[in-house]
Amino acid sequence: MRDAGHVEEIGRVLDGSQTGRDSFVSASWRRCVELYGMDPTRSDPAYIVTEAELRDHRKQAEWMIAAARSGLQSLFRQVAGQNYVLLLTDAKGVCVDFFGDDLFTEDLRSAGLYLGSNWSEDLAGTCGVGACIVTQEPVTVHQDDHFGNAHTVLSCTAAPIFDSLGQLAAVLDISLLRSPTPKSSQNLAMNLVTSAARRVEMANLMAESPRDWVLRLSSSPEFLDVDPEAAVRLDGSGRVLGYTRAARRLFPEGAPILGRGIDEVLSIDVDDLPDLMRDRPTEERVIEMRDGGALFGHAIAPKAPRHPHQGMRRGGPLAGLTGGDPEMNRLIGQAERLAPGNVPLLICGETGTGKTKLARAIHMSSKAQGFISLECAGLDPQTLMQNCAEAIGPTTLLLRRIEEIAPETAIALGGLLDRRPELRTLATSCFEPSQIALPRPLFHRLAGCALSVPPLRMRRDLDWLMSRHLRRHAGDAVRLSPSARAELLGRSWPGNIRELEQVLDVAAALCVGSVIDLLDLPNPVEVTPQIEKALPAPSDPWDMLEEILDACEWNMARAARRLGVNRSTILRRIRKAGLRPPE
Ligand SMILES: Nc1ncnc2c1ncn2[C@@H]1O[C@H](COP(=O)(O)OP(=O)(O)OP(=O)(O)O)[C@@H](O)[C@H]1O
Asked: Which Gene3D superfamilies does the protein's record reference (predicted)?
């Protein structure tokens, strides 16, 4: 009776009645009859391609099968024991990979759920894979949503997988031989299959992008690094070379995406990508969208650049750091010449002047492939070693605020650099080189050349920095009134560019309309000498003298070598500190 009712309902839909079916199902039924000339009363068996045809289909889909395999395996593990079967079909609907429970092989075969079955709509009628190919959207075709009577026991949920150029490449289908009657019972299957399809697209994009930047995006900071929602692959000038399906939403509906500049839709350009790398806290990796809203970004640098300097926009990431200030131009000139070599660099300057940004730009202009960034305050020797253990080949080791390194970590670092010549250090410090309290040998290992970043109050490109920040973070329309601009140009900026950015962000949020006026500017925060005094003093390696002596079994010569001083200094310090060797 159910079969007769099904045929009768198809008839009513063809006559234009609404029967409560999803509209994509009704549309598919109409295509089956009117376009493919199918008869709902016939129970046609599944269409299986020949062995030779299957080999061809699998060969063409080889790259997708490889990209999808581990995703499918983990999805199958999640649904193990629940009678689901997973199919990966190519864009024509032919099943090229298959995961099912061996117990049901015969049942699955007779339902057409196995390798080589063709689920395109014109052969199989309304079905999950077929409807997904036509609509290019995830769908559930549940029981008598199917057109042919042969399939009305099945429930099929399918999601499309797109290649990085936006073309449909495959369909991932999760099917049940027997399912509960409500279609909503398949909501979980829908979530599983769409997430798995998204991950396959991500894996595919990553696999084809070792020489390009990839920007991963997520609306939730918690999932940014582990399971991002979308990703784009970018060339050296920030143009889109590839994308996952979910990244479409960033771009205007219907407009082409490939070749567009990422700065057209997000408030960043290619020079900002190093600031979005994983070593930065997630909450600092916020990207504003041109049409409002914000996303969290995770940029992955090319593993093997096409050529150390090739591919980046003319001038490269270093040139993007100056707006014509003569001191900055001189510094950038030095950095450009030093970047490709292996000389360890010590980058000094006040807080917020852009030392870290300069270090990242130097890394991007170097031959190094790996990039490790560590904050020295609180860094223990184990964490240092663990972070460096996985580095293979030429690697940049960025040590932020080297003046805060603990003595035992400084000792470990010296040993590490001895053993691992492929690590090139870039160290930053808020102190002048002469004020940095480090054992001499280590200091010289880190400071092959010292670069000094000028404070903002000395820079003559403040105007350029302000306009650039406003353009990227507040939108093209927002500008400064002449009096607000004059006030900002006259400030002393103890917090340097970081402070400037915060002042502009606050002003842009407070201003009414698109002009920032004097009253919109937050008052400058002056750091008083008392506050400065309260800041922790740089750590002193002599505080660790006893531990160092213990580690050297009280051998004065060894301890002297570790601390980079002579034996008599060690003896003098031992006396001064009243230390005694253990009994
Ligand atoms: N040349 C520049 N052009 C534009 N923005 C810059 C430039 N240099 C730094 N910035 C911005 O200024 C902020 C501070 O930069 P960064 O973290 O590199 O400073 P820093 O000197 O390393 O600070 P600290 O020593 O306090 O860690 C960041 O938001 C960075 O993007």
From this structure: 1.10.8.60, 3.30.450.40, Homeodomain-like, P-loop containing nucleotide triphosphate hydrolases
